[in-house]
């Protein structure tokens, strides 16, 4: 709005300069009038550009001096006795009214419009201006104020709508982040604490063994960290160390895992954590559902700089056509790999065991 009204004022100042140099060449009062208008414009708009908005005292001075006093000065001492020679000063008042419409409050803007209209009517009567000139100028004065006011109202309204949309977007992002954090915690609990409790409840392992007690202590420490800190504060490991930790956690519950690693690449911590957690859940599924106590884990770097991990068992298997993935497979394997930028696939047949492949990146 400052720039728009500044351009409006500059167009009127240009008219004033051309009018003075062409119609009243050499008249000092006319040049003084232009200098006054330029000085008030520099004061009003210069301060507005520096501060970010108009100063009401500057706007009031511009309306009174340039809009109300200047026409009478030019009529009395500048030789402006016709509407043509006085018109440029009236235009200065028109652009001053546009600024007043947006910089002053409603009552002050109305008062400025009334004062400018009365003084301009009087000035035009003094130079015997035609009725068409009077009506046209008053229409221009009112329309300048109305257009500037409506434009300013529209911009503020759009700004409010944008602020509200930003607030809603921020709230949605906060909600999404909280949901993602809860989901990550639920997956971690499903893969660790819940798997341990399920194994203990099934009675397939000795709860007093040193391995089980060590696993319970490790998962109790994890729960304490989960309460005290967020997941991104937990230490990050290389993909090899993360896989070994996953294998160790399921071996403590009685599953024997044969592992083979080859040329493991460096991967981002988030990807390493996703790969290890998905591997842990795949091994937990072997222990719970495959009907065998053995699993085979292979991890190797791929040609594209990524990594491929396979978890294979020789258990009962299942038919893929009628199989509906359970909660652990959907959330802890498929979804986790997708979110990390990788993918997971499962191949199985009745009596042929299960092969889970984890690939990062996709």
UniProtKB/TrEMBL annotation:
One of the record's GO molecular function terms: ATP binding
Coiled coil: none
Transport recorded as keyword: no
TM segment ranges: 29-49, 61-79, 85-104, 109-127, 133-155
Top-level taxonomic group: Bacteria
InterPro entries, alphabetized: HATPase_C_sf (IPR036890), Sensor_HK_TwoCompSys (IPR050482)
Name of the protein in its database record: ATP-binding protein
Organism annotation: Streptomyces prasinus
